[in-house]
Design brief:
Elements: H1 5-30, H2 33-52, H3 60-86, H4 96-103, H5 113-135, H6 145-170, H7 183-220, H8 230-241, E1 250-257, H9 260-267, H10 269-286, E2 292-297, E3 300-306, H11 310-331, E4 340-347, H12 354-370, E5 376-380
Parallel strand pairs: 4-5
Antiparallel strand pairs: 1-3, 1-4, 2-3
Length: 381
């Protein structure tokens, strides 16, 4: 079977339909709207390729103007999907593209009509695609392999359409849209089939990496407070503990809520959850740079600090105790004050491990509770 224009269009139709179904299945699985927009884009390309075949039978309005308009619309859906993926709002000025293409109906039928049509279509697609590529720039954060691939595939695709428009004007190439004649058209058909495959693969890899990152984050976070859980703290603690030295000592601060059961009994478990969330937000706001915070379970939290002096730990603990006591007394009054008991362990050299520090912190915490609660007890490793 020779790769004549009709054969390439049929191949492009099959590729676009496959990409539509694959991305739709991915969207049903994860519910990410960018996948739905990309799937819709490939669905539009599928319809456009089918309609483009009709131009050989004399249906020029549908086979040329409408089919090419669908190709522009498909790329607009790709841009919308990238904007959704990067959470970037799009200017309403992009809607003018549809009006510009509608204006092409006013172009009189003339020998130069095919060149004008092809040039304007190419520039519109190039602008949309290059804008989508620009949205995928890192902006100071690392991109996944799939996102990087998608960025460069879109960039190459957009530049191809810029070159396509330029060649029609500068090289005075022969173009006949009705019969698929002209080297520019034939090369464009081949590039289109390749682009469909590459863009679809890159889009799928982009969302899959984000999904894997989200799963990893969920596995490392406490579902209620969004602080690290015990497992994540255990994995991240060694790197921080190894930095300890006499010049840059570290500290572990254990926090436990006093009379927390009274909040649950008097105000309900939802109130207890709100109290835990409020404390986690206070911890997050007060946490020094480079420190770690985690919820160990129940109403027990831990902070792992670096370059922490005795005075710094004391100031941090007292500030948290004061803020929390005031908030708890106003939001959830109880017969006995809902406060924080704390136990801190200072270490000037890398300790034997996190478990050792937690045991020392537990001892200091319970010494604080035995001493009347709502206090901070500091010991040295």
């Amino acid at each position: 079977m020779s790769l004549d224009p009709s054969t390439i269009l049929i191949l492009s139709t099959a590729l676009a339909a496959a990409a539509t179904l694959y991305l739709a299945v991915e969207w049903r699985s994860v519910g990410e709207q960018s996948l739905l927009l990309w799937s819709a884009g490939f669905a539009v390309i599928t319809v456009g390729c089918i309609l483009a075949l009709l131009r050989s039978n004399g249906f020029l309005l549908i086979g040329i103007w409408f089919a090419n308009g669908l190709l522009i619309g498909a790329h607009a859906l790709f841009l919308a999907g990238v904007a959704r993926f990067t959470r970037t709002p799009l200017s309403r000025a992009w809607y003018l593209i549809a009006l510009l293409w509608l204006a092409m109906l006013l172009v009189p039928s003339a020998p130069w009509w095919s060149k004008v049509m092809l040039c304007i279509q190419s520039l519109l697609i190039a602008g949309i695609t290059l804008r989508a590529s620009m949205l995928l720039r890192p902006h100071g954060v690392s991109l996944s392999v799939g996102a990087v691939q998608l960025r460069y595939v879109l960039l190459a695709h957009g530049l191809f359409y810029v070159a396509k428009a330029g060649s029609v004007i500068a090289l005075n190439n022969f173009v006949d849209l009705a019969a698929f004649h002209g080297e520019v058209i034939q090369i464009s058909l081949v590039e289109g089939a390749m682009a469909i495959m590459l863009i679809a693969l890159s889009m799928t890899g982009t969302e899959r990496h984000r999904r894997e990152e989200r799963i990893e984050q969920l596995a490392a976070r406490d579902p209620l407070t969004a602080l690290y859980n015990r497992r994540a703290l255990t994995m991240r603690a060694p790197a921080l503990l190894e930095q300890a030295s006499p010049e840059k000592p570290g500290a572990l601060l254990l926090i436990d809520i006093d009379n927390f059961k009274q909040v649950n009994d008097l105000h309900g478990h939802s109130a207890g959850d709100k109290l835990l969330v409020a404390l986690s937000e206070m911890i997050r706001d007060a946490l020094p740079h480079g420190a770690l915070a985690a919820r160990l379970g129940g109403d027990e939290f831990v902070l792992l600090l670096r370059e922490a002096s005795n005075d710094a730990v004391l100031a941090l603990g007292n500030d948290l105790r004061a803020m929390f006591r005031q908030m708890a007394s106003e939001a959830f009054p109880t017969p006995d004050a809902v406060t924080l008991s704390m136990g801190a362990t200072l270490f000037a050299q890398p300790p034997a491990g996190l478990t050792t520090l937690l045991e020392l912190g537990d001892a200091a915490l319970y010494a604080s509770k035995r001493g009347g609660r709502n206090s901070l007890k500091i010991v040295r490793a």
